[in-house]
Design a protein that fits this description.
Helix content is 53%, strand content 4%. Strands 1-2 form a two-stranded antiparallel ribbon. A hairpin with a 2-residue loop joins strand 1 and strand 2. This is TIGR03086 family protein. InterPro entries: CHP03086, DinB/YfiT-like, Maleyloyr_isom, MDMPI_metal-binding.
């Protein structure tokens, strides 16, 4: 599980590094996010995940920019990479996956948070890659890990508005394509 988390963090960082700041105002597949807002959301999610792994309870303001606030846009990739390394290191500890912890102030099983964030990093890496015209190389193992993270929360995500309507995929679609589709993303956009 820690390897999957680390791999999806690597996908996210690669997509962030490949995003030209000249495109930060461009739209993304997430209607509420420009490229810049998506990168900020990804960086904030990495900090939130690190705090969860470390059993830290924090009030969370979704309108704040705790990682990138005050950082020049040309330095965002480096700031994100530093936060990503801290997040990966925190989840690399097997104890991070055991028992209960908090997502911000909400108590949850640690393994559930780890699985959700593993999926979150990969899905938003795809969003960013699509928005900025980058390739995204997702292995079958990562695709399965993301599908495993998305499937249990897909309906809740649709009901809560953080996933779109499920997109139909053909028989034989890969686990990654099914994960994208379950989260309301059209795999054909890649």
């Amino acid at each position: 599980m820690a390897n999957d988390m680390s791999s999806t963090i690597d996908l996210a960082v690669a997509a962030i590094r490949g995003a030209d700041p000249a495109r930060f105002g461009d739209p993304t597949p997430c209607p509420e996010f420009t490229v810049a807002a998506l990168i900020d959301h990804m960086a904030s999610g990495m900090l939130l995940a690190e705090r969860s792994a470390k059993r830290e309870v924090h009030a969370w303001d979704p309108d704040s920019s705790p990682v990138l606030g005050g950082v020049d846009e040309k330095d965002w990739a480096q700031a994100c990479a530093a936060q990503a390394a801290a997040t990966a290191a925190a989840w690399d500890d097997p104890a991070a996956w055991e028992g209960d912890t908090h997502m911000a102030q909400t108590p949850m099983p640690a393994a559930m948070i780890g699985s959700l964030m593993t999926a979150e990093f990969a899905l938003h890496a795809w969003d960013l890659a699509v928005a900025t015209g980058q390739p995204l190389d997702v292995t079958p193992e990562i695709g399965q890990a993301v599908l495993d993270g998305v499937t249990p929360v897909a309906q809740m995500g649709r009901d809560g508005g953080w996933f779109g309507a499920e997109v139909p995929v053909p028989d034989g679609a890969s686990a990654w394509e099914r994960a994208l589709a379950a989260s309301g993303r059209d795999p054909a956009r890649a």
